[in-house]
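Can you please make up a protein's amino acid sequence together with its fold in token form to help me picture the idea?
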Amino acid sequence: MFCFGAEPVAAQTGPLNVTGGFSMTGRGYHVNGIDGRRAPLAANTNGNLQFNLFGLRSGLNLTYTTEESRLRQSVNRLSFDTGWSWGRVSAGDVSPDMGKYALQGSTVRGGYFEATHEKFFGAVTAGQSRKAVNFDEDSPFRPASFQRLMYAGNLGYGEKRSDFFALGGLYARDVAGSINRPGTASPAENLVLTAEGAIQLLEHRIRLSGQLSSSALNRDFRNLADNEDSPFPGFMEVFLKPRQGSSFNLAGEGEIRYQSREFSLTTRFSQIQPGYESLGLQNIINDQQNLSVQPSFQLFNQRLMVAMNYQYGRNNLNNQLQSTLSRNQIGLNLTGRVTDAFMVTGGYMRMGNLNKPGRDFPDPAALQLDYLMQTLMLTPTLMINGGGLSQVITLSAAWQFSDDRSLAVRQGIRPGRDQDVYMANLSYMIRFPSGFSLNSSGNYVLSEAPGTSNTSYGFNTGTGFNLLDNKLNLNVNAGWSANTSEFALAGAATRRGTQQIMANAGANYRLSNKTSIRLQSRAMNNRQTQGAGPAFTELQSEISISHQF
């Protein structure tokens, strides 16, 4: 449903600042030829209120919609945040960032404090990062979880934008008695230590940076102690006692960057060991190794820009899996400004994916996959300015072709999944001194694969202009498209085709700086030109009013 948001816009000028807004939306819907996808009539009302009192922030949201026939309300997260020249303190729901491989993307319900003194900096956070949830037999796919408490901090010296070095640590532990129906869940504890830093050389032209995190994890700290075969380094055993089933893994990355007026080069390498896990991260894919090299040139007084890219990635770092998945990608992009009015952009991309089974796998053809995809792109652009008119003509063309070189294809076990895709788009835009603009575009796509062929083409045009000292904005768009598919079904050639006609119109009138009214209408007609299928027409209109304070 289309609905205006009501965002606070006022700046804080005193100890108490109150902002908010409301919006009301009404919608009508009609369809002919198919079942309706929404109610014929609907209304929606939304209101919100936020306050900030000496850094203490909270708010309230209210929503009523006839489609769900109920009132929904939510009180925003209560939080406190204030700062001064050398520090900052936050309380409530905070999202600290203390390392890409340690603590990032998690919400901690507790507190956060950071401070700086000359070139020294540091931060600490503590609180609950996960609430307790008992196992529910009625919802077996939702696992139980223990309450999780988290403590983290870092201390460093220098400027993060230039030269610096920092050490950080994270400790997280589940509360074993926080739930009485754990199901298959087990309480875990985790210690992560991180070192990161950067240094600049040759008058800031070269920058070396990197970070390394080590994670000691007890997946179930109720297990018996494992002092004889501990995976933890000795210095970490001082803080975390190893248990049966414990693990220790590393994750890190390094980057070398060179920057000059005509040339730049960025090289980055990262590796996450199999089994690496931090309880301060929402999601992480371990068992990964990646390398990227990105050089770029600016030539002929920046009239020609050349950017290249090489990427390599793989998994199965310890050769414990049945196969190794690797990816190689090479890219080249050229941008040339031939004249002040004519510019050409071109590109080439080559990406190969290889799934290689181990030497001892009995049937290599069942797992081995070798897929190569290449793309060529060309986009010339002509800009014409004169007489108060601004015109832009752009032609985009691309050819994407793929080659299935898998062992099963070479041995004749199955056909290859080769595919060729041809794409073209032509667009034209003109803008008049009055602010009136007109744009049109046409596109064509042809996709061919063994046994199938798809063709799509269409045309769109639209216009927009402002009236009444820009208080009223009007826009109208219309388009036509067609699609044809040919494929084999039950040994016989089958052909299907569809056509669509679409139209949109909208108007937005600003009553004041904080109040506006918007009207939007949409129509679509779909029909089958070949083969069986539904023909239908949809109409929808919406009107909305919003106010902010």
